[in-house]
Amino acid sequence: MIANYICESISRGSIIRVMFEKGKKLKATKSSHEIFDLTLGNPILEPPPAYFQALSEFAELQNSQLHRYMSNVGFDFVRENIAQYLNQKQILSEVNKDHIVMTAGAACGINIILKAILNPGDEVIIFAPYFVEYIHYVIGHQGKPVIVNTRDDFLLDLDLLEQKITPRTKALIINSPNNPSGRLYPQHQLKILVDILNQKQREYRTEIALISDEPYRELVYDNKITPSVAAMYDNSFIVYSWSKSLSIPGDRIGYVAFNPRIHTTRILDALSFCLRLLGFVNASAPMQWIVNKLIGVSVDISYYEKKRNRIFQTLTNAGYELIKPEGTFYVFPRAPHNDALGFTQMAMEQGILLVPGQGFGWPTHFRIAFCTDEPTIDGALNGLVKLFSS
After folding, report:
1. 321-348 pLDDT, tens digit each
2. Do 42 and 54 have their domain in common?
3. How far apart are CA 288 and CA 302, in angstroms?
4. Are residues 71 and 20 in the same domain?
5. Helix (H, G, I), strand (E, B) or coil at 368
6. The domain spanning residue 382 has which CATH number?
């Protein structure tokens, strides 16, 4: 009765969730202070005080008519304020509410874009290492994932990208800062990427959508700013979520913004239709109202930056090979003997829960999520230092 693709996907599973579930079983056999879980990017930080203030204000509203059906794309006043913010920060220019669609998080945003643009067999380029679910999203909408490995330093391999684009290429997904590597793709590389896409569109007389997945846009360190690749390329979409910037992943709220210069017409209508078709209908009314009060607000980034610095220094001193993350709350070290699966199994036996790089398309490395408490990081680091020297 269940579709073949769903059966196959369940069998493969998300490696992150698989490790998370294994960790739950392990926790049942050990005391909590013996388990150091670094699997999920599930921020332990509470939302900033302004979030709770907005939540309280919303709870006091009565006879507001805010709980009724609305336009599928969301409240006009929220979309207009987001558009003003994007213009002000030069993330996109000449944007208004008709270029914004409110979504139930970034996953919803990516899925409605893919549903709207893909025909069966269309190719979608994904840079590895990549967020685990991208593959499932593309296949789920009858597309064909085309993996383009990044360089050894996890920056873009633009020569390889140029070779992988074909007349069937319909979209490219880019995620910067990147989960799992933490790399922030520099502006000069993004400009070359845009030149390549424009050249290939002219050569093949096609349209290639660039989907910029930006849930970690604000989570960057060393006073850096995330360059806006969507502002450089006409056929572009931004997918955003407040899950990380406000520490509210369970509240599922985000948006899609598309470049006003996009070549395809009726994008707003298509995204609106796909919201209904995929069952999202519209983003949560309370959450739209609340984030409208918090546009531009974020958690204390220095909290994560201190953890990044400590983990990088400790693992480097121990002998691990890793690139210092410029953003996100992940570190992606190379596993001893390039065997991430074997190493994460050894770590699990010591109570340290990690995610092997197989799920990210990079089997030589493993991911650490450091958005957790200090005792967990203390125990994990002590164990990882011992494991490297054993």
Report:
1. 999 999 999 999 999 999 999 999 999 9
2. no
3. 27
4. no
5. strand
6. 3.90.1150.10
Q: How far apart are CA 307 and CA 324, in angstroms?
A: 12
Beta bridge partners of 124: 145, 171
CA dihedral in degrees (289, 291, 296, 300; nearest 10)? 150
Structure tokens at 273: 């239709």
Q: Dmax over Cα atoms in the chain, in whole Å?
A: 65
Contact 161, 125 (CB under 8 A): yes
For residue range 344-390, list pLDDT tens digits in order: 999 999 999 999 999 999 999 999 999 999 999 999 999 999 999 87
What's the CA gap between 134 and 111, in Å, rounded?
A: 9
Instruction: Taking the CA atoms of 86, 90, 92 and 94 in sequence, report the sign of the dihedral they define.
Output: positive
Q: Which amino acid makes up residue 79?
A: R
Is the pTM higher than 0.70? Answer: yes
pLDDT in tens, 259-301: 999 998 899 999 999 999 999 999 999 999 999 999 999 999 9
Long-range contact set of residues 77-83: C-beta below 8 Å, sequence gap at least 24: 77/292, 78/102, 78/288, 78/289, 78/291, 78/292, 79/255, 81/292, 81/295, 82/255, 82/257, 82/295, 83/257
- Is 370 in the same domain as 385? yes
Domain endpoint, select from 258, 292, 326: 292
335's tokens: 């596993």
Q: How many CA atoms lie within 13 A of 201 on its CB side?
A: 17
Best CA proximity match to 364, nearest among 75, 106, 154, 81: 154
Query: If 0-12 CB within 10 Å is exposed, 13-18 middle and 19+ buried, where does residue 273 land?
Result: middle
235 and 172, same domain (yes or no): yes
Structural contact between residues 246 and 51, judged by C-beta atoms closer than 8 angstroms: yes
Q: How many domains does the chain have?
A: 2
Same-domain status, 240 and 360: no
Which domain, by its residues, includes 12?
Answer: 4-47+299-389
